[in-house]
Each structure stands twice: as structure tokens, then as C-alpha cells.
Design goal:
Layout: E1 2-7, E2 37-41, E3 47-50, H1 56-62, E4 70-72, H2 78-81, H3 88-91, E5 98-102, H4 104-113, H5 115-119, E6 128-132, E7 138-139, E8 142-151, E9 154-163, E10 166-171, H6 179-185, E11 190-194, H7 207-216, E12 221-225, H8 233-237, E13 244-246, E14 252-254
Parallel strand pairs: 3-4, 4-5, 5-6, 10-11, 11-12, 12-13
Antiparallel strand pairs: 1-2, 1-14, 2-3, 7-8, 8-9, 9-10
């Protein structure tokens, strides 16, 4: 099973508008971060997209992705879903809509804001057949497990994907570690973890919290994501243990 990190940055990306790189070295390409999204791919080529980031079109183009088989959303914050219209070309040539899944409240909010995506409009096809995660256990050959994570006053969905004898976990946008998260991610081969900055934040994990989750779950390899302009790639890479990688746009890993 493979992981492709389409985007690795916080909600404003790096650099921020105004060419603000913060502490990040502009000469290091891995510091240029678009908004977070990943693809998980099985050995037989089935692809699951997690989140439709604001930068989805550019991410798919630069990585040569022209097809996905299902889409999952962690939550409905703008940087995770406002690229939803870029799913339209993925619908072309399909016999039916793309399967899509999210937690019940996220489903409600997405339907409210992007009704045409899920019901069609003015003769245009429905793009996504959206359903809740309540009874989902398998999708396109992947085992699917999930739980809700605290994201400040909101919630975000954590995912675990099992396929080909390997496991990939995805935990972005969380502000505390819960027992449900530890149970979900324990022993995963690869875990992608929210890591906004070094200092604590009210709605996101900071570096110490991200490393704590990786360690307590005893994962094979951890990858940091949702990084802001204070998290220079080379500097943070020198600070983390050998089994932890600083994520970057375009990073591809096998579980």
C-alpha cells in the first residue's frame, strides 16, 4: 500500500500570501506547502482520496493523478473541502458518481454547502454519492476504520486504512489525544500526524503532541503534516527521531 501526500501545509499554506515564509527557507522546495490532502493506493491501483483541499486541482496535476475510486472527508473546514469542485473531471467517463464518505455532521454540512455536488443540477451529473461512515467497513478493497478527534470546539475524523497486509493512519486537525485515537492507530505501519508548530495551539497538535501520539501508538513510521511557516523542513528534520519524517508536498511512501 502506498501513501501520496498531495499537500502538507496549514490553512494559509507556506508561504502565506505576501510571500511570508516565516522561519522556512525559501530555497528549500520542501518548504513550499499547499493545503493538506492525501491519496492512499493499493497494490492493484485502487485510490482513495482524503479531503478535497483548496489546492486540489494543482496537486492532482503535478502528481499526474487523473482517477480516484472514492473520497473521504475529515471535516468541513475550508482548507479540507473547498476544492470539491475539482472532482468534476474525476466523474467524466464513470458509470456513476464517485463514492464519498464522512462523519454524519460533516455529511450534513457538506450537503448544505455543496448541494449540486451530491444531487446534480441543471442537467449536470451528480459528482459524489455521499454517505456516512456509520456502517462502512470496506471500500474498494480497503478495510476502513475511523473515530472522531477533538479539533478545538469542533471535531475531525481520524482514519485507518488496511490493505495488502499493511496499515496507514491519518490524523490531521486534532487538539488532544484520546483513548479512541490510540486504539485506532496502535501498531499502524505508517501514521500521518497533525503538527502545526512547536508551541501548543487551541485547535491543532504541536510537535510534542504529534511525537507523543506516534510513540504511544508504537507505529512503524510517523509523518508530520499541516505544518505552518515556523516549521522549516531541515530544522525540524534534525529534531525528530529517525522513524519520524517531516512531510512535504509530493512525498510518496510505501507502508
Amino acid at each position: 500500500m502506498k501513501l501520496l501526500m498531495l499537500g502538507s501545509g496549514t490553512s494559509t499554506g507556506v508561504p502565506r500570501i505576501g510571500n511570508d515564509w516565516g522561519l522556512c527557507d525559501p530555497a528549500e522546495p520542501r518548504n513550499r506547502r499547499s493545503r493538506v490532502s492525501i491519496i492512499v493506493e493499493s497494490n492493484d491501483g485502487q485510490r482513495l482520496l482524503v479531503d478535497t483541499s483548496t489546492d486540489l486541482r494543482a496537486q492532482l496535476l503535478v502528481n499526474g493523478i487523473d482517477r480516484i475510486d472514492a473520497v473521504f472527508w475529515t471535516h468541513d473546514h475550508a482548507d479540507h473541502c473547498h476544492g470539491i469542485d475539482d472532482l468534476r473531471p474525476m466523474r467524466y467517463g464513470r458509470a456513476g458518481p464517485i463514492p464519498g464518505y464522512a462523519a454524519s455532521e460533516t455529511v450534513r454540512r457538506l450537503r448544505q454547502r455543496f448541494g449540486y455536488v451530491f444531487a446534480g443540477q441543471f442537467g449536470y451529473h451528480t459528482l459524489v454519492e455521499l454517505d456516512t461512515l456509520d456502517r462502512l467497513r470496506m471500500c474498494m478493497g480497503f478495510g476502513i476504520a475511523s473515530c472522531q478527534m477533538p479539533h478545538g470546539p469542533a471535531q475531525s475524523t481520524a482514519f485507518r486504512f488496511d490493505c495488502d497486509g499493511k496499515t496507514i493512519g491519518y490524523a490531521t486537525d486534532f487538539s488532544e489525544i484520546t483513548r479512541e485515537m490510540v486504539d485506532l492507530f496502535r501498531g499502524t505501519d505508517l501514521l500521518v500526524v497533525d503538527c502545526l508548530r512547536r508551541e501548543p495551539h487551541p485547535t491543532h497538535a504541536h510537535l510534542a503532541m504529534a511525537l507523543e501520539l506516534i510513540e504511544v501508538c508504537r507505529v512503524g513510521k510517523g509523518v508530520l503534516t499541516h505544518l505552518d511557516k515556523s516549521m522549516d523542513f531541515a530544522t525540524v528534520s534534525a529534531e525528530v527521531p529517525p522513524h519520524v519524517l517531516v512531510g512535504y508536498d509530493g512525498l510518496g511512501l510505501a507502508a
